[in-house]
Amino acid sequence: MSETLHIVCPHCHTTNRVQKAQLASAPDCGKCKQALFTGHPVALDDEAAFERHVTRSQIPVLVDFWAPWCGPCRMMAPAYEQAAASLEPHVRVAKVDTEAAQALGARYNIRSIPTLALFVDGREVARQPGALTSPAQIAQWARAQLPR
Ligand code: ZN
Q1: How far is the CA of 71 from the centre of ligand 1 (A)?
Q2: What is the pLDDT of residues 19-65, one digit of tens each?
Q3: 135 within some domain
Q4: Which strands, in side-by-side order, build the sheet including 92-97?
């Protein structure tokens, strides 16, 4: 029996059903035909898009809450990019600009940036304030929080 997972498209935010076995073979979105996994963090500064990814995705969603004026955030950005490539397609990697999306920062009570948070089935399961500056560190932190 093959298992299907709901994967939200990073481009048009449509929920796709993907066979679990097909996850790693670069599935495309049924609606916009673009790749469901790009190897890059998805900017979810729009509250509706954020909500959709976090609540509909049946894979964990890792979020970097950051801001353009934050030095440590910019230092972490290249490592986060690389971590995205290694965590996909088992984790959706996203980022939220708390300057552009102040309501999200407030809603999740983000007190310092950068803050990493991991969401599973719509619930925040772990949070890491402060920059992790190596891709391996970021990927390890995320993997260690995943439900087994
Ligand atoms: Zn799409």
Answers
A1: 33
A2: 999 999 999 999 999 999 999 999 999 999 999 999 999 999 999 99
A3: yes
A4: 42-43, 92-97, 61-66, 115-120, 123-129
